[in-house]
Each structure stands twice: as structure tokens, then as C-alpha cells.
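Intended use. Records like the one below are meant for learning the mapping from a protein sequence to its folded structure. Do not use them to infer anything beyond what is encoded.
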Amino acid sequence: MKIRYYIQAILLSTIIMFGGCKKALEERPYTAFTTDYFKSPEGLQAAINSVYAGMRYDYGPIGAVLLANMGTDEWTFGDQGNSGQTLELGTYQIPPTNGSILTPWNRNYSNINLCNAILQFAPQVTMSDAARNVIMAEARYLRAHYYMLLVIQFGAVPLDLGSGDLVFTDVAYYGFNRIPFNDVLKKNYQAMINDLTFASQNLPVTRPTNAFKLSQSAALHLLSKIYLYRGYSDAKESSDFANAYKTAMELINNKAKYGTDLLQDYSQVHKQGNDYNREILYSVERLPLNNANNEVANPGSDFADKVNLSNNLFNCNYQNAVTVGGVSLIDDRPLQYGRPLRQLAPTANVFNRVFADKGNDSRYDATFRTMWRVATLRTGAELETFKTRLAGVGFAIGDTAIYLAPSDARAAQLKALGKKYKVLGPSEYWSNQNKTNQLYPNLKKYDDSVRNNFQDVSGRPYIVAKLSEVYLIAAEAALQDGRAGDAVPLINTLRERAAFRSWFSAGELATRKAAMTITVAQVNLDFILDERTRELCGEGLRWADLAVRKKLVERVKAYNPDGAPNVKDFHNLRPIPQSQINSVVDPGGDSNRNKYQNPGYY
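Structure written out for the chain above:
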């Protein structure tokens, strides 16, 4: 494998935690290192913080977001995503040169190798055993997480980076230790399980109130997921689903011990300003209004590297979408609505079928923006002039400008009433089959109105793990272990929570909860996948949700007309990047490098 593991390259941007009422990330760059640096407490801490920061490559940049969401039953490409890597992923015409697949491939191995270094040198560092165990547990969690992101996309990947399995190397290596695939995949899963078992026992029991340092709850979440994933894989063991259930239930049954809980109101989980709530187990941290420490050099033009672009990629084209009497009601990009990059658009499956019940289930309204109000970036005299122009056509700041109705019937009603704002029903929402309007339900989980300017990127933490997913993992594991009855109360806990709205009376809430309750007869894998959309839509999980469970082809063909014509079984894995294949030096001198490529891509 041609991966360069020079220490200088790994740690050029080292991130250091500092104390205070709000622990956060602050950059302190160094310029030159030897491995001796890792043998000091400060060097070890700098290394682990660098590995934390490396997760920014995997959560937020355009390549990572596209790789995790695009071409599923949830997401297709928007009108500005009809070319390049976005189009390739969305139509399953994915060459080994696709830019998005390089995001984890080029970034994760260096961080894995740095974890190997931490674990190799930590025993030699003079520090308390307790502090050492925490750092080693963090390194093992993060190593497993980086490997998980590779395995779900590419299948078997090397544990041996040139010096042996899970051993640190500081020289360039040109082999590619992923053959035989099944043997390596078994080792991949066992290594992740071993790492996460250690992490679940040695990390702090709870995470800090206002920081995303790892804790045992995050490790239990990921361990349960890895057991579940292995249960669907060619490396499966008979106990995997039972172990996934047991691990998830350890967290669910001991929420107080681990310092986590479900919030009463689903709409508060992703609310800006509530980023450190108890339901969130782990997020990749960034700082509001601090692009330097977020490692974003050019926030107006950076789409890759460590940028958090999630608040812009899912936005539709609200700008200049409605004009009344010659006045555009939103003719610029107000901070609360984000930059309309229009890369990802929801499929009709999401808003018509999965979220068919928008009355009893609050999660649709909490997930998608369907209303835009008259707003502007103007200030001073320009603002007053705009207000006057608005008044001349019967509008004011804050009035409804665009409304995406939940049904065509509701849209027809509003149009018949002569509403002057723009109203669209679901049949009129933008799609690649109906391009009349460039408007569609707009994911709002990543909204960020605290930005430097209208072109800026997000400084919010990017949610990676939530307690609600642990409930879904436990339910699915129970189902696959032949105990569907044990899945029912877990799913109903989330569905009854989803019935909550703050303005409901006790009687109305009870009625809504009853309507949301399911029975064992309804529980199957497809129902759980739909429930995962309702609970986790747009959270960077869906492509793996389908591919790992071998449901990708079936559900893309059923629910994504853009991906349906080309998707095939081999698309359950991504291609190994062509640059990697070209660089391999086979130890036996075999010139057939394609043997290292995933089937279907050569």
C-alpha cells in the first residue's frame, strides 16, 4: 500500500484540548518530529488530539457527505449536483477515479498509523496508569472507527501497513495486504471488536458536559454496531446479533450510569445551541466563528479537507424562488437559510412514503424545512428601502415566502385561497424527472446561523453517534436473533417520543402516542430501515445502512429513479481508488494489479 507515514506529515496540524468551562479545540502547530516525541506525556496527548481532529475529514467535507448519503433511497443529486463525483455516485457510474472515495482512503490510514504509534509508545511514557489507559482507549476507539469507515465502503482493508498487523510504521510501503479478502475481513472485524471492547472498559464512564471527548457510551454504541455489521458480513459469527443486542442493552439499561438519555422532544436533538445535549454520544467537534481552529483556510471556496459543509450541501434554491410585483422576497442568502449548494435532494420516497404520517410523527417537521420566510442580509438604509418595497406588494420581513405543503390537496387549498406566497405540493417538488422548480424539502439538522458571512461554512459539531440509534441497533439485533418481540418496546420508545409536541395537551399526546405504537406483526428489516430514516435521515449513515445489509440494490431500484437503471450487486462496495491500484508493487511480482480491486470495477 502506497501510504506515506512520515511523522512530520501526520502532525503538521496538531490539535490541543484546553480547559475551562467549555473544552474546545485550539490549534498549536509543530514543524518537526521524531518518534521520541511520542515518549513524552505532551507528545502522546498531541498525537491523540491530532487523531481526534483527523475525523474532520470524514464528517463534513463534500466527499464524505456524498459518500455517506448519495444514491440511496433517501438522497439523490440536486440540480447543481448533475456532474462529476456527485453525478457518478448518484447514478452508480462510479469509476475508480471518483473524488469522493479518496476522502477516507487518503486520510484514514495516516490516522490509523498514528493510533498504532500511540499504542506502541504509550507504555514507555512516564505518567499515571489511569491517564495512560484513557489515552490508549481513545486511540483504540478512534482506530476502530477509522477502520469501520473504510470497511463499510471498501470491504477488506489492510491491517498490515508495512510492519505487521496494527503495528506503527514510519516508512513508505508499496504492498497491499488485503488478500485473501475473507481472511483479511475477518481480521478487520475482530480488530475493531477488540479495540472497542478495550475502549468500552477504559474510557471515562461519561463524557464531559460541554465537550466531545470520548466516553464508554460512544464505545458501546460503536461496538454494538460492529457486531451488527459483522452479522451481515462474510465474516459473520453465530453470536454476532446476540452480542450486538447485549452490548446495546448495556447502554440502554444503564443510561444514568453513562450520563446519557433520550430527550423528550425530538426537535431539540439537532437544535443549534443544544449541540452538547445528553442524547448525543459523540460528535466531531468544531468551533463557531473560528475557521482557523476548524482548519478551514478559505471558507468561501473550501469544499474538502476538514471543512464542515453539511449546512450548505442539502439546501435547495430558495434564493429568488418567488417574486411578487417585481420584488424578490428572498433575493440574497440570509444566514438562517444557508448557502444553496443543491448537491443532495431527498427522494420522493422520503416525503411521500416513509414520512407519510406527518401529523402524528413530529420527525418530518423536525428534519426538513418546508417554509421560508421573507428575509434579507440588508442593513441600514438598504434594509429600510427593502421594507418599503415589500410593503408595496403586501409583504413584510418574517411573512411566509415559500411553503412546501405536505400534500397536493393542501397545496390546492392554499392556492384556491389566493395566497400570494409560493405554494408547492409534493408532485411539484424538484426532481430529476420534474425540473420545473428548484425547491424541495430542505434538511435542516445542520442549520448554522452563527457564521461569519453568507458564504461561510459551519462551526457546529457534526453528530456521529446518538443514543436513539442504539435503540434501533438493539431492535434490529433482536429481530435478527429471532426475538422480534424484544424489538417492539425499543422501537415504540422512539415512536412514542416522536409523537411529542410541546403544545399538545396530555390527552392529545396520549392519542398521538397510541397512533404511533406498533405491534410485533409490523417488525421486519424493511420497517426498521424505514424507522432509521425517520430517526436518522441525513446523518451520514444511509449508504452503509443499505450496503452492509445487502438492501442497496433492492431499495435503490424501488425508490431512487436516478440510481435504479445502473445499480448492481457489486455496488455494495466502492472501488479501490485507481491511484492505489496503480501504485501497488506485488510481492510475488504479479503484474495483474486488478486482483486487488473490488469486483465489478475492472
